[in-house]
């Protein structure tokens, strides 16, 4: 059987394997170079990276920046080792590192997009009234029943697998949904460390402004087909990439379907291009013959 | 209602030990009944979910995931030994697990 591979990019880092820096260094990649580029682009001195850094864990912007930089650094490692993927997909904000790996955007422009997206949605999030949560162990109908019965302002915005979902909405309502989910038998229902209702209808109002900003970013045709997490179409042209960037911020996504489309396209090897192993952990609930190659 | 035999207890223990050794990339010798799943093995709810699915298939169990979740809220599991006992109760009582004291 011919091997087909895909690069997958995480959006955030729950837990480091704590081997990331050693792996990059032993492959000739100096991660401090990436942090320096981001510092220069943002015009601030980013803190030195450490696995226990509270800033990179708790500051929403810095958490995205560091996940992006690791995604980019690991994609460079793969490139240096002649790994040529057949496809790529970015989980939520993992889209930016995916576009860097596909040579559609520069490292610097990725930082710029992350910053602008954050700045825009922060108009909504800065009052601290919004949030997200993860529910494991209930089906989507159970979660929607909770939301509908109690007239809660929260939405299921991502499906990770048949029994793993992400919700987004007003913080108090997200917390209420999580509490109700536990009462209904969820194995786990936890808030995520963000103040922004990513992928929810609350962000719909930012679509036009973000699209206008994206118009001025230099975007090239991707070097490999990217699967949209919004509607699972193949994205490779600059115009489609621009649309996808907006959809990815303001619309619901479906990681489960995205993985199924990759498998249906014959992918049987996945590389998690980033820190931690959240995506390989989640993939245990996706049916198919495939393997995750640990970096 | 399944009969819990010594053979079944041994089998369940073996499955759970082997599962965590593989998932947590550790030697089976590092696992005992008193091992804390989160503190010592860095385990998580996704692993718990996967393990439930393994047992559901292996013993053809008629039990809803949310029933197990409701039981787990009242009877939280911290160690491997506690998890083995819970799994044996699931096999024994299936969807009636919430009715037992």
Q: How would you characterize the overall build of this protein?
A:
The complex is a heterodimer of chains A (295) and B (101). Chain A has 295 residues and is α/β, with parallel strands linked by helices. Chain A folds into two domains: 213 residues, Malonyl-Coenzyme A Acyl Carrier Protein, domain 2, CATH 3.40.366; 62 residues, 2-Layer Sandwich (Alpha-Beta Plaits), CATH 3.30.70.250. Chain A is 44% helix and 16% strand. In chain A, strands 2-1-9-10 form a four-stranded parallel β-sheet, with helices on both faces. In chain A, a hairpin with a 2-residue loop joins strand 4 and strand 5. The mean pLDDT of chain A is 94. Chain B is an all-alpha fold. In chain B, 55% of the residues lie in helices and 0% in strands. In chain B, helix 1 crosses helix 4. Classes of the chains: A alpha/beta (295), B mainly alpha (101). The interface between A and B is medium-sized, with 18 and 16 residues.
Task: List the keywords.
heterodimer; A: alpha/beta; Malonyl-Coenzyme A Acyl Carrier Protein, domain 2; Alpha-Beta Plaits; 2 domains; 12 helices; 10 strands; globular; B: 101 residues; mainly alpha; Non-ribosomal Peptide Synthetase Peptidyl Carrier Protein, Chain A; 4 helices; 55% helix
Secondary structure layout plus pairing:
The complex is a heterodimer of chains A (295) and B (101).
Chain A lengths: L4 E5 L10 H7 L4 H12 L11 H5 L1 H21 L6 E4 L4 H7 L5 H19 L4 E7 L3 H10 L4 E8 L2 E7 H13 L4 E4 L15 H9 L10 E2 L6 E2 L2 H13 L4 H10 L4 E4 L5 H5 L8 E3 L2
Parallel strand pairs in A: 1-2, 1-9, 9-10
Antiparallel strand pairs in A: 3-5, 3-6, 4-5, 7-8
Chain B lengths: L5 H18 L21 H14 L6 H10 L5 H14 L8
Helix pairs in contact in B: 1-4
CATH topology-level fold name of chain B: Non-ribosomal Peptide Synthetase Peptidyl Carrier Protein, Chain A
Instruction: Tell me the β content of chain B.
Output: under 5%
DSSP, total strands of chain B = 0
Shape of chain B: globular
State the fourth-level CATH superfamily of the largest domain in chain A.
Answer: Malonyl-Coenzyme A Acyl Carrier Protein, domain 2
Average pLDDT confidence of chain A is 94
Evaluate the radius of gyration of chain A.
18 Å
Shape of chain A: globular
CATH class of chain B: Mainly Alpha
Name the helix and strand elements of chain B from N-terminus to C-terminus, one letter apiece: HHHH
| Largest sheet composition of chain B | none
Uncertain regions spanning at least 5 consecutive residues of chain B: none
The span between the termini of chain A is: 23 Å
Distance between the termini of chain B: 16 Å
């Amino acid at each position: 059987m011919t091997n087909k591979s895909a690069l997958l990019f995480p959006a955030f880092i729950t837990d480091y394997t704590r081997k990331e820096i050693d792996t990059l260094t032993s492959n000739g990649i100096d991660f401090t170079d990436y942090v320096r580029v981001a510092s220069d682009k943002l015009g601030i001195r980013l803190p030195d990276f450490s696995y226990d850094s509270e800033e990179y864990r708790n500051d929403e912007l810095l958490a995205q920046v560091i996940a992006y930089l690791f995604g980019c650094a690991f994609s460079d490692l793969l490139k240096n080792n002649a790994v040529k993927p057949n496809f790529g997909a970015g989980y939520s904000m993992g889209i930016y590192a995916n576009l860097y790996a596909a040579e559609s955007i520069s490292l610097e422009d990725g930082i710029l997009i992350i910053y602008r997206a954050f700045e825009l949605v922060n108009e909504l999030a800065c009052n601290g009234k919004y949030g997200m949560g993860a529910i494991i162990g209930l089906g989507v109908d159970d979660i929607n029943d909770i939301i509908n019965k109690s007239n809660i302002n929260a939405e299921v915005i991502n499906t990770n697998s048949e029994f793993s979902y992400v919700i987004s909405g007003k913080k108090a309502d997200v917390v209420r949904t999580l509490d109700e989910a536990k009462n209904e038998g969820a194995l786990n229902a936890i808030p995520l460390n963000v103040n922004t209702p990513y992928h929810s209808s609350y962000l719909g109002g930012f679509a036009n402004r973000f699209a206008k900003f994206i118009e001025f970013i230099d975007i090239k045709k991707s070097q490999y087909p990217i699967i949209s997490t919004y509607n699972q179409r193949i994205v490779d042209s600059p115009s489609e990439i621009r649309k996808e960037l907006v959809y990815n911020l303001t619309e619901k996504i479906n990681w489960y379907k995205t993985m199924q489309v990759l498998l249906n396209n014959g992918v049987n090897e996945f590389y998690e291009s980033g820190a931690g192993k959240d995506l390989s952990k989640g993939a245990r609930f996706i049916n198919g013959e495939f393997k995750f190659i640990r970096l | 209602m399944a009969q819990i035999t010594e053979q079944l207890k041994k089998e369940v223990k073996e499955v759970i030990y082997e599962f965590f050794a593989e998932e947590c990339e550790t030697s089976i010798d590092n696992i005992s009944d008193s091992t804390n799943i989160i503190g010592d093995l860095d385990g998580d709810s996704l692993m718990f979910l996967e393990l439930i699915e393994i047992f559901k298939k292996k013993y053809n169990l008629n039990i809803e995931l949310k029933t197990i979740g409701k039981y787990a809220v009242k009877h939280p599991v911290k160690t491997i030994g506690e998890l083995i006992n819970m799994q044996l109760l699931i096999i024994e009582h299936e969807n009636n697990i919430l009715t037992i004291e």
